[in-house]
Write a structure and sequence with these properties.
By secondary structure, the protein is of the alpha+beta class. Helices cover 35% and strands 18% of the residues. Strands 1-9-8-6-7-5-4 form a seven-stranded mixed beta sheet. A two-stranded antiparallel ribbon has the order 2-3. A hairpin with a 2-residue loop joins strand 4 and strand 5 (70-71). Helix 2 runs parallel beside helix 8, helix 3 (124-137) packs antiparallel against helix 4 (142-151) and helix 3 (124-137) crosses helix 6 (178-185). The radius of gyration is 17 Å and the shape is globular.
């Protein structure tokens, strides 16, 4: 997939990317041809907990349609694509500090649809969390679960994505069948969706998370480089809506 990049002047480095110790994380997924995908992950030596978003209110998705990993009107001409890792603290910052504005001002009115492409760059907890979010997407509840996980994000690969935590969070999401969620998490359908997102990330040369692309109509997506603040995304989305 060919893409180009639109940048906002002064955009800071606000995503997990190569810096310091580089770890090669095998994201091997069984496919018909038995091909293993390798995801390059970066551990920057952060020893603390997850992002400090514990006080963030739940994302209000009332009345907004979901289809799989997509949120918003399927007929929206502009699509905001996010590559994310549930363990990434910058992804948590975006999800709790920027996404609510995008949802209220662009998604809810039907101007923009947003699509989540989950990656498992950072390790075992990333893969477990992603499997569960993709499983929730089979019930059209991916966005509620990923929001809840971000608001309870723990230290990377500390084992924070426990069954008990997920069951507690999932039980608070209306319309989500928790038993089915755990059954689906290990299904071939979820595995296939994870593989597809990883392949898309490789094709788009995603350097880290979160990474964002905008798609206008039938045109090829283009990458946007903007700070993780609402005003920067407003400018990028307004530009896209103007064509």
């Amino acid at each position: 997939m060919s893409t180009h990049t639109r940048r906002t002047a002064g955009a800071p480095s606000t995503r997990r990317r190569p810096s310091g110790l580089v770890v090669i994380a095998a994201f091997a997924i069984a496919v018909a041809a038995a091909v293993a995908l390798i995801a390059v992950a970066v551990i920057a030596g952060r020893g603390g907990g997850g992002a400090d978003v514990s006080g963030a209110p739940p994302l209000d998705l009332t009345g907004i349609s979901q289809t799989g990993m997509s949120l918003g009107d399927s007929n929206a001409n502009v699509v905001l694509i996010e590559y994310a890792d549930i363990q990434c603290p910058f992804c948590a910052h975006y999800a709790t500090g920027v996404l609510p504005t995008i949802v209220d001002e662009y998604v809810r009115p039907g101007k923009v649809r947003t699509e989540l492409r989950g990656l498992a760059f950072l390790g075992p907890d990333s893969e477990k969390a992603l499997r569960l979010v993709v499983a929730a997407s089979l019930q059209n509840r991916a966005w509620e679960l990923q929001d809840a996980l971000y608001r309870n994000q723990g230290a990377e690969n500390s084992g924070w994505v426990t069954d008990d935590l997920v069951r507690e969070l999932a039980a608070q999401i209306p319309g989500l069948d928790v038993d089915r969620l755990f059954e689906d998490a290990s299904s071939s359908e979820v595995t296939a969706q994870m593989q597809k997102a990883a392949q898309q990330g490789q094709a788009d040369q995603v350097p880290g998370t979160p990474s964002f692309f905008v798609k206008i109509g039938d045109a090829a997506p283009y990458k946007i480089e903007v700070p993780l603040d609402p005003d920067a995304f407003r400018a990028a989305l307004d530009d896209a809506l103007q064509g």
